[in-house]
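Anyone up for a design puzzle?
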């Protein structure tokens, strides 16, 4: 499951956003540390392709159920300056960040005298730097501790010697302000080191309604920082997202259109999350169910089969594959086969986003 940790300074709108995208009713209050423990919500990934495929397999009153893939969002309590030294329960919060695959860094990009800012003034650049510094300091402490152990074992173990050298390189970069994800030597570290700044980051600009859809000067600050890091940016109004959860589908669609948006922020955040983590979706469809599955970009057919069941991967023979839109255009699998659109692919086939796949296996 894709796990995205929602982080940021206190009072930037993290919990409001979390409430909106998970409808979990988590406390969102106008004072620091309203979130003490992490909150976890699992939400389905919206995918219109599933409904289009479902229509092909309706038999009278029998409609196959849709099973979307899902994303786990973790609302992590607000970090403050000194978190790496335990300030504001920082150690607990940093431990929660280690458990996620990516970080959605919520940055306050709105002015509101009624919502206090922990630093006294709104400054996206300063806020980002505060979080970056605390995560980097935590990583430095992690690497210094690991380096002590490696020095004792490096003399007799070439692998540990190489890891010690890599740790030294990454440490030097972290001290220069470079995150571990931007340092090639990070890939040479032992897998269990799990550095915080090695995780990909999505910057989520929380704006007021009047700054939708394109943002404001604060958002421009964030975009400049993100561009220098090669990170993605999503502009969202957490309050608007919260309001959308109270509306029906037609009302929500009209509400979004009035603000120049074609879909909710949740969908845009999920799309960017997939891109950031290098994930795609493949599909399975039939009379029993229509289902979405997540796999890494570049995965070959046997790996995709293994997402469904390990036996499928172990006994993989071949896969029948068709792009979802070609199947919908054909109107049925039989029609697609007669047109030559249904392909047979082997073990080396690289799965494409939106492939509808049927696996043949033998164990």
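Challenge accepted. My sequence:
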């Amino acid at each position: 499951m894709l796990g995205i940790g929602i982080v940021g300074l206190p009072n930037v709108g993290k919990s409001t956003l979390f409430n909106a995208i998970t409808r979990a009713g988590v406390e969102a209050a106008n004072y620091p540390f309203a979130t003490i423990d992490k909150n976890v919500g699992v939400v389905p990934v919206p995918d219109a392709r599933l409904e289009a495929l479902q229509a092909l397999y309706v038999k009278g009153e029998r409609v196959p159920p849709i099973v979307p893939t899902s994303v786990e969002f973790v609302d992590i309590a607000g970090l403050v300056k000194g978190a790496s030294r335990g300030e504001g329960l920082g150690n607990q919060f940093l431990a929660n960040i280690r458990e996620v695959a990516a970080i959605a860094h919520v940055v306050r990009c709105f002015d509101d005298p009624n919502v206090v800012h922990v630093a006294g003034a709104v400054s996206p650049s300063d806020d980002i730097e505060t979080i970056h510094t605390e995560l980097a300091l935590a990583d430095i402490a992690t690497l210094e501790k690991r380096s002590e152990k490696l020095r004792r074992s490096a003399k007799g173990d070439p692998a540990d010697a190489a890891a010690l050298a890599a740790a030294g390189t990454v440490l030097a970069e972290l001290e220069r302000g470079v995150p571990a994800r931007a340092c090639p030597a990070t890939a040479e570290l032992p897998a269990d080191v799990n550095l915080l700044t090695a995780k990909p980051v999505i910057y989520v600009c929380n704006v007021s309604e009047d700054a939708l859809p394109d943002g404001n000067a604060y958002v421009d600050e964030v975009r400049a920082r993100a561009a220098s890091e090669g990170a993605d940016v999503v502009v969202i109004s957490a309050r608007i997202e919260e309001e959308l959860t109270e509306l029906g589908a037609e009302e929500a669609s009209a509400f979004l259109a009035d603000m120049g948006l074609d879909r909710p922020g949740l969908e845009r955040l999920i799309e960017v999350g997939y891109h950031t983590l290098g994930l795609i979706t493949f599909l399975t469809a039939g009379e029993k169910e229509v289902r979405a599955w997540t796999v890494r970009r570049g995965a070959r057919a046997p790996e995709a089969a293994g997402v469904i069941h390990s036996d499928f991967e172990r006994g993989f023979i071949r896969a029948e594959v068709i792009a979802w839109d070609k199947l919908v255009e054909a109107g049925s699998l039989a029609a697609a086969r007669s047109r030559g659109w249904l392909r047979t692919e082997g073990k080396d086939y690289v799965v494409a986003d939106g492939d509808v796949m049927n696996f043949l296996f033998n164990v």
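A detail worth pointing out: The first strand starts at residue 2 and ends at 7.
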